[in-house]
Amino acid sequence: MTALLQVLFDALSLGSLYALGALGIALIFGVMRLVNFAHGDYIAFCVFAMLWPSIDAAAIVFAGNLPTIILVPFILAVGAGLSVLSEIVVFRRFRNANPATMMIASFALGFVIKYFLLMLYSSRPKSIDLWSNLTQQIEFFGARIPPLQVITIVVTIVILIALTAFLKRTRFGLEMRAAAENFTMARMLGVRANRVIMLAFAVSGMLAAAIGLILVTQTGTVDINMGANLMLVAFVATVIGGLGSLPGAVLAGYLIGAATVIMQVVLPPDARPFRDAFVYGAVIAMLVWRPNGLFTSKATKQRV
Amino acid sequence: MDQALSATDVSVSFEGLRALSKVTLDVPRAKVTGLIGPNGAGKTTLVNVLTGFQKPTDGSVSLDGESMIGVPPYKVRQKGIARTFQSGRLFADLSVLDNLEVTGVGLGLARREAAKKADAMLEWIGIAHLAERTAGGLPYTDERRVAIGRALMLDPSYLLLDEPAAGMSAEEAADLARLIRRIIAEMKCGVLLIEHNIGLVLNICDHIHVLDSGEVIEVGPPSVIKASERVRHAYMGTQAEAEGAVL
């Protein structure tokens, strides 16, 4: 029972991170058929925004010292700003380009961001103490749960509810859903392309920032590659969720999180180092079974 | 013409291929203008030019006297030119009501107002019962009516209907004709009807343009079109002396 509870919390909190990442990618894919591989570098950028630029081994905390109530909106704004800026400076020029071209452009942008960080902060990981008391484990029916896990899960659920309400209830949300399905048609009905796309980038950037905050609290280190692994998993999640489907991306994020944690527990100790191979093996099996992902949106099917 | 959507001497070439040459057409308010012609005549290209999706190689497009060349598609709709497509092209994952609301919010309404207008429009067309259905699963004819409703949100001055009757039965086409008459009478909208259903066109249009190989080959009221040798020729080839049986 205790072990089960532990696995449940681990799976949910890891799945939450993956779900947030997948959501950020699926949102952009929905409105402009772009798989944004720079998303992982947005995560690192947001975290580094808490530090003063220096190549010293020790981190010089700058914005990270702000009170939480200011720090969180500040980092979210950094994420939104970076993301919107990349759309204005880079992706807007590829609006009618082939999706593969856009994807390569996003790789290039990712490298630019990474090397920009490398230049300012050096490649050495630095330790930073952000809300470290949240990682001290507390007893919960015998399971040892860090409060951060609970916060991660709750924050993710709140974000999912807020985003759903935004998409369903507001005019911008409706414009975004319509644009995600058929951009040309939406424009013909008066929807302004640039505004909707910038909004999607802003939301996606804020999701990256949220992930950055959670990751840095969890690990206590900042590293220019800290978003890379998560980006990879999140991308896989958007594919098995059905590209363009937001609920699919979220569900697949949780599934991969759960699969990872469960493999860690059930695999014989000798096989554990190869855990990810088993997880991705399951992903391949899943794609053989449903090549279009769990949820295929009608929009992607009908598009010629 | 002042109160009209007009194309004047419009030519469009695609890499040397002439899709339209020197086409002039007026869509006046509160009237139904017909546009017919065999497949590949350039009808859809002309509609794309009128809605800002295709820049003409030559010639001009004006709305009530104001030039429309270079106006982006979303602005074309804001200025009051709406269109539908051959294949309904609804947002399949959205509800019928949401489909109509998109036009409302796209044109700057708050969500609640857009919903109210969308409700009223569905009521006006007589498909209020479909409001909550997902657009993707609708039968063909309902899909068309929703598309027309979506185009009619916030009273556009001009409505371009691209083959709205394709695949409809005689009865359904008659329903459509009634709807178009109501649009003219109650909304004072100028309608451009592009159709293969010649019966429908002759029945409800005030003025008809016949397009063939990118050129207007005949213009006039239904009686003139019915009698036209050239139109019969375009549709039937040289052999046609079918005494009006075609039309």
List the helices and strands and how they pair.
The complex is a heterodimer of chains A (304) and B (247).
Chain A: H1 2-32, H2 39-48, H3 68-89, H4 99-121, E1 126-127, E2 138-140, E3 143-145, H5 147-169, H6 171-181, H7 183-188, H8 193-219, E4 221-222, H9 228-241, H10 246-266, H11 275-289, H12 298-302
Chain B: E1 4-14, E2 17-28, E3 32-36, H1 43-50, E4 58-63, E5 66-67, H2 73-78, E6 81-83, H3 96-106, H4 111-125, H5 140-152, E7 158-162, H6 170-187, E8 190-194, H7 198-204, E9 207-212, E10 215-220, H8 222-227, H9 229-236
Parallel strand pairs in B: 3-8, 3-9, 6-7, 7-8
Antiparallel strand pairs in B: 1-2, 1-4, 4-5, 9-10
Helix pairs in contact in B: 3-4, 3-5, 4-5
Can you put this structure into words, describing what you see?
The complex is a heterodimer of chains A (304) and B (247). With 304 residues, chain A is mainly alpha-helical. In chain A, 68% of the residues lie in helices and 3% in strands. Chain A has a single domain, classed as ABC transporter involved in vitamin B12 uptake, BtuC. Chain A has helices spanning 2-32, 39-48, 68-89, 99-121, 147-169, 171-181, 183-188, 193-219, 228-241, 246-266, 275-289, 298-302, and strands at 126-127, 138-140, 143-145, 221-222. In chain A, the strands form 2 sheets. A two-stranded antiparallel sheet of chain A has the order 1-4. In chain A, helix 1 (2-32) runs parallel beside helix 5, helix 3 (68-89) crosses helix 8 and helix 6 (171-181) packs across helix 8. The longest helix of chain A has 31 residues, at 2-32. Chain B has 247 residues and is an alpha/beta fold. The two termini of chain B are 30 Å apart. Chains A and B meet through helix 6, helix 7 and helix 12 of A and helix 2 and helix 3 of B.
General form of chain A: globular
Strand order of the largest sheet of chain B: 6-7-8-3-9-10
Name the CATH architecture of chain A: Orthogonal Bundle
Main sheet strand line-up of chain A = 1-4
- Briefly, what CATH class of chain A? Mainly Alpha
Uncertain parts of chain B: 238-247
Decide which structural class fits the backbone of chain B. Answer: alpha/beta
